[in-house]
Amino acid sequence: MSCGASHNIDCRKVLDAVFLYLDGECNGSQQNLIRSHLDECSPCLREFGVEHEVKMLVARKCGGERAPDSLRLSVLARLRAARSDTDAAAEFQPE
Predict the structure, then answer these.
(1) Would you tell me which of 40, 64, 80, 94 could form a disulfide with 8, CB atoms 3.0–4.6 Å apart?
(2) What SS3 class is residue 18?
(3) What is the pLDDT of residues 23-59, one digit of tens each?
(4) Burial profile 13-28: b = 16 or more Cβ within 10 angstroms, e = fewer
(5) Which residues touch 16 (CB under 8 Å, ≥6 apart)?
């Protein structure tokens, strides 16, 4: 997705990182770049709002449940492996 306007970060990169941003898993400079983009890009801000609502709905409906520790550890290990395959920090550098 692209709104057609010129931004420091491409809209697709911002939307790909929305859940990382929502979960507070971005470093300070990444958060600032994403927040700045959302402040100036209405289509991305709208999409961010949708993603935020989905996250809140899941938290409300599944908030009391906890995954077994073995499942949690397995998922975390897979996420770490997937992250090591790509350098997420490089994607947030101004173009």
Answers:
(1) 94
(2) helix
(3) 888 888 888 888 888 888 888 888 888 888 888 888 8
(4) bbbebbebbeeeebee
(5) 91
DSSP state of 17: T
State which H helix or E strand residue 13 sits in: helix 11-16
CA angle 65–19–27, rounded 5-degree value: 115
**CA pair distance 86, 81, nearest whole angstrom:** 9
Q: Does domain 11-85 have CATH number 1.10.10?
A: yes
pLDDT of residue 92: 57
**DSSP-assigned letters across all residues of 26-95:** S-HHHHHHHHHHHHH-HHHHHHHHHHHHHHHHHHHHHTT----HHHHHHHHHHHHHHHHHS-HHHHTS--
**Calpha distance 10→14 (Å, rounded):** 7
Q: Give me the pLDDT at residue 86, please.
A: 53
